[in-house]
Protein: Phage holin family protein
Organism: Usitatibacter palustris
Amino acid sequence: MLSLLLRWIVNAAALLLVAYLYPGVAVTTFFAALMAALVLGLVNAVIRPILVILTLPVTILTLGLFIFVINALLFWFVAEVVKGFEVTGFMAALIGSVLYSVITLVTSWLLFSPPKK
């Protein structure tokens, strides 16, 4: 349970870092970042798999690049739902979602990977 809470806080901090690095994404408060990280996690767990299955032919046709479009649209959707989290357009959502994915990948790898023996 503590690991899940820590991961949520780290993802919210990653969202704040995305907003700091890229001007097309804005987060007003840490609470807004927490809510956006929570909603983004729920959307990625529930809606994203359905969209990936529904768009599988297009994803195969584009050699997997359509996944970036799905991620950007979901990132943009969360920005429309959560107050205090704003994305200026589709390209900002695309760049923001890629940055967010890379930052959360690196932080999860650094903080939550099991130590080597």
Observations:
- The first strand starts at residue 25 and ends at 27.
- The two ends are 25 Å apart (CA to CA).
- DSSP finds five helices and two strands in the chain.
- The chain has one domain: 2-108.
